Amino acid sequence: MKTAQLLELIKIKTINGPVPLAVTGIQMDSRKIKPGNIFVCITGTRVDGHDFIGEAVQRGASLIIAEKKLPLDSETVCSVLVKHPAKVMARLVNHFYENPAAKLCTIGVTGTNGKTTVSHMIYEVLELAGHKSAVGGTLGFRMNGSSTPTVNTTSDVILNMEMLQTAVDNDCTAMTMEVSSQGIVSGRVWGIDFDIAVFTNLTHDHLDFHQTMERYGYAKGLLFAQLGQNLRKEKYAILNADDPWAERFSEMTPFETISYGLSPSADFHASHIVYGEHGTTFLLHSPEGVHRLSTSFIGDFNVYNSLAAISALYAYGLALSGILQHLPDVQPVAGRMEKISHPDGPTVYIDYAHTPDAIEKAINSIMPFKKSRLIVLIGSGNYRDRLKRPIMAEKASAADFVIITTNNPGKEPVDTILSDFQKGMLHEQYTLIGDRREAVRLAVGQADKDDIVLLTDKGHETSLLIGDESISYSDKDTALEQLLATHSKSAAPSIPYTSCDGSGKP
Q: What totals of helices (H) and strands (E) does the chain contain, helices first?
C-alpha cells in the first residue's frame, strides 16, 4: 500500500527522513517485522516498543511511528512522531486491511463468565446451519475446523484485523469474538464496528486491573456504547435480564435490545428446567412460541449461556427452527465442565472457573449428582486479583474437602497465594499444596468411586508459569494419568500432604 495514503490519515504528525513509496505491513512487535513494514512503538505496562527500534530497523522496517524523539539516521530511516501511537496504529491497520469487519456480521461477547462457551455455541450452530463463520477468543482463532492459538482472550488490534481478513478471504459471513474488559479499555477492538454485542454477567474479577466494580462495569459497558449512533445500521444488544448491570448497558446504546434469562419478562427465557448428569432440558419461551430444547451442557449457568447464544443467533437472522435443530448437537468446549472418569474411579470435572461466582455455579451444577464426597481444587497466582481469593475459598467451602494450590504462580510467593485462600475457608476440611501437579494427583488419587472431583481455574490451558519459565502442564492429562495409575493397581498410591484436620485423608 502507498505510504502517502496511510500518512494522510494522521492529522497531527512530524515526519523525519525519506518517506518510503510503499509499505508491506504494520507491526507492533519487532520480532515480526519484515522488510518494508511499519513499526509502531507502543508504550505498554511492561514493555516499551521504543526500546526495540534498533531491532525493527535491522529486520527491515522502513518507517517508524513513535511518540518520542528517536535517535535515528534521518537520511536512511523515516520516522513519524505522533501523540497517540496506539490510536494511529488502529486507524492505519484498519485502512491497510480495508476494514474487514464491515464485510462480516461481527458478534462481540463480553462478561465475567461464559464468554468462551457462548462464543463456541454461536460458532458451532452457524457452522452446522451451513453459515461459514469464525471465532476468536480464549481457545484461539477457529475457522473451517482448524484452530490457531492466540495469547489473550481478546487479541491485539493487528491480530484482530488479520483474523477478520482471514475470515473474509474464506467467505465467512460472521465472526464471533470474546471481548474482555481489558481488551476494551486497552483499545484492542478499535476498528471493529460490532453488529451484535452480547452481555453474559458481571461478577467479581479483574479488580487488580480495574480497582472497583464500578470501573469494571463501565469497561464492559463500552462495548455497547461503541455500537455507535448510526441508526440506519441493523444492530442489537443482547442482555442478561437477570443481571442488574443489564439496564445500565441498555441505556448506553440506542439500538434494540434483546433480553434473555430465567425471568418470565425476558424475550428468551427458560422454564421447567431439568438438570441431568449429561445435559439439560428446558422449555424455551421465545417471541415465536414455546419449544422444548435439550442441550449437552450441564448446570444453570449453561442455561444462561444457551439463552445468550440463542438470542445472538436470532439477532443474526438464523431461523429459530434452525437454532433449535442444531444447538442440541453442540458439545461442551474443552475445559468447561469437561468430564473424565474411570469405571473404578471417581468422576472428575475440569473447569475454567476462576471467579467466586463461577466456582459457586460449578459446584451447584454438580451437587444434584453427588453420591458421596465432593472434592474441589482451587488455585490462582501471579498477583492476579488477590481480593477474590478468600471469596473463592468461601464458595469452595460448600465441598466436603478443598485442596488449595496455585495456578501460574509466576514470581508470586506460593505461601502468599495459599494464605490468601486459606483466610476464606469456612471449615477445616482442606489442605494446602503449592505444587499444582501434586495437588491434582492428590485430588484424584485419594478420591473413591462415588466421589466427585472438581478441578477449577485451569480448564483447557496446557502450560504453567513458574518464575519466568512456562512449562508444559495440563489438568486433564494429570488427572487421566492419576486415574490410570490409581486404578491399575489394587491400592491407591500414597501421596504426601498436610491435612488441616489431621485425618490423613481428604
A: 16, 24
Q: What is the dihedral angle through the alpha carbons of 129, 130, 136, 140, rounded to the nearest 10 degrees? A: 100
pLDDT in tens, 237-277: 999 999 999 999 999 999 999 999 999 999 999 999 999 88
Burial of 353 per CB tally in 10 Å (0-12, 13-18, 19+): buried
The type of residue at 18 is P
Q: Which residue in 469, 468, 461, 476 sits closest to 150, CA to CA? A: 461
Contact assessment for residue 238 and residue 253, using Cβ atoms and an 8 Å cutoff: no
Q: Is 342 helix (H, G, I), strand (E, B) or coil?
A: coil
C-alpha cell at 440: 491434582
Which three three-digit cell numbers place residue 306? 444457551
* Assigned C-alpha cell, 483: 486415574
Write down how long the chain is.
Answer: 506
Cα–Cα distance between 201 and 241 in angstroms, integer? 10
C-alpha cell at 307: 439463552
SS3 229: coil
More confident residue, 382 or 24: 24
DSSP 126-172: HHHTT--EEEEETTEEEETTEEE--SSSS--HHHHHHHHHHHHHTT-
**Phi, psi (deg, nearest 5) at residue 209:** -95, -45
Residue 204: per-residue pLDDT: 66
What whole-number distance in Å separates Cα of residue 171 and Cα of residue 92?
Answer: 24
* Phi, psi dihedrals of residue 332, rounded to the nearest 5°: -55, 150
C-alpha span between 489 and 438 (Å, rounded): 19
Residue with cell 512530524: 14
SS3 label, residue 433: coil
> Do residues 381 and 412 lie in contact, with contact meaning Cβ atoms separated by under 8 Å?
yes
Average pLDDT over residues 41-59: 89
Distances in Å between the Cα of 405 and the Cα atoms of 93, 206, 384, 441, 455 are 42, 20, 14, 12, 11
> For the stretch 123-151, what's the b/e string if a residue is b when 16 or more beta carbons lie within 10 angstroms of its beta carbon?
bbbbbeeebebbbbbbbbbbbeeeeeebe
The answer to whether 404 and 434 are in contact (CB under 8 A) is no
Torsions phi, psi of 65, nearest 5? -110, 125
Q: Comparing C-alpha atoms, which of 250, 201, 197, 200 is closest to residue 223?
A: 197
Q: Do the beta carbons of residue 109 and residue 139 sit within 8 Å?
A: no
Give pLDDT tens digits for 89-138.
999 999 999 999 999 999 999 998 889 999 999 999 999 999 999 999 98
The contacts of residue 383 (CB under 8 Å, 6+ apart) are 208, 410, 412
